[in-house]
Every structure is written in C-alpha cells, then in structure tokens.
Amino acid sequence: MANPNLLNITTVSGVTTNVGLGTTAFTNVLANSASSGKVYKINSIIVSHNEDRTDNVSVDVFVNRNAAGTASSTAIIANLSVPSGSTQVVLDRNSPIYLMEDKSIVASASTANFVDVTIAYEDIS
Fold first, then answer.
1. What is the average pLDDT score of the chain?
2. Which SS3 state, helix, strand or coil, does residue 8 take?
3. Phi, psi at residue 124, to the nearest 5°?
4. Nearest of 125, 117, 124 to residue 44 by alpha carbon
5. What pLDDT does 6 receive?
6. Is 14 in contact with 44 (CB distance < 8 Å)?
7. pLDDT digit string (tens) for 46-104?
C-alpha cells in the first residue's frame, strides 16, 4: 500500500461525485481502494438539504481508516446543522485534504432521503 509520489504523477483527472444519504448508518461517499496507486485531492465537500421542510438535518462527515467503511473514523465535521432547502460547504479548495489508499469518506444524516453530499476531487496517479 503506497501512495503515488506527487513529483512523478502521470495523470490528474477532475471528478465530481454525489451521493444521497440515508439515516443513522454511515454511507460510503468516496472510497480509495487499497493498492489503487492513487491519491485523491479533495477540493470541496458540499452538503445539501434538498427537501422543503421546516426542520434542520444534522450531518456527519468522516474519513474512515479503510476503504470499506468499516474501521474507526476521524471527523471532518460532526453534527453540522443544515437548514431546509439550503447547502453547507464542509470543505473548500482553500483547505483541501488528501484521501490516501485504503481510506474512504463516509457521511450520515439524521433524516433519510433528504440530504445529498457532493465531492469534487482530483484523481492523481
């Protein structure tokens, strides 16, 4: 399990992915598998509460210590209150993070089916 040397990269691809969240259980939003030979530079994470309701949704976003999303995690943000019909920027290009091999980003929401997580990143190999 080795991440690529950033001085010897051959490919950098821009990627945007989004996932709808369920409730309670963490959803694997982005995974970098073991031995992928890649590192992901996370430029932004945006959470949207896409339902016209009167209540806020509480959202957690974590980096998991394995790509399967089954190991212990480190919080990027915990208990983020997202008002109905709005978006919140969790991370932006002014403070990027790298997602190494055999790591994943997981998220959960307090209300099912009303929250989306969008991640823009660079796939570097």
1. 89
2. helix
3. -110, 125
4. 117
5. 83
6. no
7. 999 987 777 889 999 999 988 776 667 899 999 999 998 899 999 999 999 999 999 99
Residues 43, 99: contact at Cβ < 8 Å?
A: no
Q: Give which of 93, 94, 26 is closest to 63, Cα–Cα.
A: 26
Count of Cβ atoms closer than 10 Å to residue 68 Cβ: 13
Q: Is the pTM of this model over 0.85?
A: yes
Contact 104, 69 (CB under 8 A): yes
* Contact between 103 and 12 (Cβ < 8 Å): no
> Do residues 41 and 91 make contact, with C-beta atoms less than 8 angstroms apart?
no
Q: From the CA atom positions of the chain, what is the Rg in Å?
A: 15
Q: Which of 54, 61, 74, 57 is nearest to 27 (CA)?
A: 61
Q: Given this model, what pLDDT does residue 2 score?
A: 66
- Bridge partners of residue 60, in order along the sequence: 108
Give the residues across from 48 on adjacent strands: 87, 116
> DSSP for 72-94?
-EEEEEEEEEE-TT-EEEEE-TT
